[in-house]
């Protein structure tokens, strides 16, 4: 796991200045396109070019099960994780439709469901175990399992980069994973579980309260021994969450832009920044989830999402929906004429 100690790349200051200068000379009042301008400038700095692009997008959905489901923290049965993997393979899931519409590459990585879905087109079997352990009773993962999950995230980024992608999107699927994300957030930010536990797959008020009680019990068991973000992830996370952590770190190390999805992906982004400070600048935040803990994560990372469509599906769906905005920002930045090119007079003062 020596790769975790590799240096984090720095945004390209020269490309940023060139993109800022271009924005100042396009045929519009400065700032008239609002965040479309700043998104293009930020992307330019990260891609190291005055003319950024978001055409080639790679989406990896990491899937895994969670032992904490035994505590009754989900409105759906655990079998749904495997069933959704099959749905991804058939092209029937939301992210499947979005990826087709965006002409994005989509892969699914099975990191360990209770039931093995078997060979499926578009699904990579990288099974670590049949799900994590119940973290209300003990650590979710062993050291070896955590390392394997982190490495799976890095490997996905390397595949995407080798294929020529310009944007990486990580998604997740795992019944019970909003409980894991809530526990991880509480450990990293010292939150009260009652304030950040949400409905997840559709829990009623009693179900949300049960989730908060489960998280509080897990924190009482583990938090005295959690001395690092890595230990928080091992004790309270999930295989798919750890894979997202690994993917964000790998993106930041290899000058590769990532778009972060909603609450579960956001908890992974927070953990990645705590593990390897400097990851944050390489992340675009796609949307504001309706899960109550997500706003806490966004504030902790000083992140302003691109959209707020009241989504909470996961699967990388919110991240995919934000891609057209980035593409339009690039198109405007790259394609508009400058005042000199158009023969238009600039403002007098």
Explain what you see.
This protein has 349 residues and is an alpha/beta fold. It has a single domain, classed as Rossmann fold (3-Layer(aba) Sandwich). It has 14 helices and six strands. The longest helix has 20 residues, at 143-162. It is globular and about 70 Å long.
SSE blueprint:
Layout: H1 13-25, H2 35-47, E1 57-64, H3 79-90, H4 94-102, E2 105-112, E3 123-125, H5 143-162, E4 167-173, H6 177-189, H7 193-196, H8 205-222, H9 229-236, H10 239-253, E5 257-260, H11 263-275, E6 283-285, H12 292-300, H13 317-335, H14 339-342
Parallel strand pairs: 1-2, 1-4, 2-3, 4-5, 5-6
Helix pairs in contact: 1-2, 2-13, 4-13, 5-10, 6-8, 6-9, 6-11, 10-11, 11-12
Shape: globular
The name CATH uses for the topology is: Rossmann fold
What's the number of helices? 14
Q: What is the CATH first-level class name?
A: Alpha Beta
Structural class: alpha/beta
Give me the CATH architecture, please: 3-Layer(aba) Sandwich
Low-confidence segments, ≥5 residues, pLDDT <50? none
Summarize the amount of helix as a percent range: 40-55%
- By CATH, the superfamily comes out as Nicotinate-nucleotide-dimethylbenzimidazole phosphoribosyltransferase (CobT), large domain
Our count of domains comes out at: 1
Total E-strand runs: 6
Order of helices and strands: HHEHHEEHEHHHHHEHEHHH
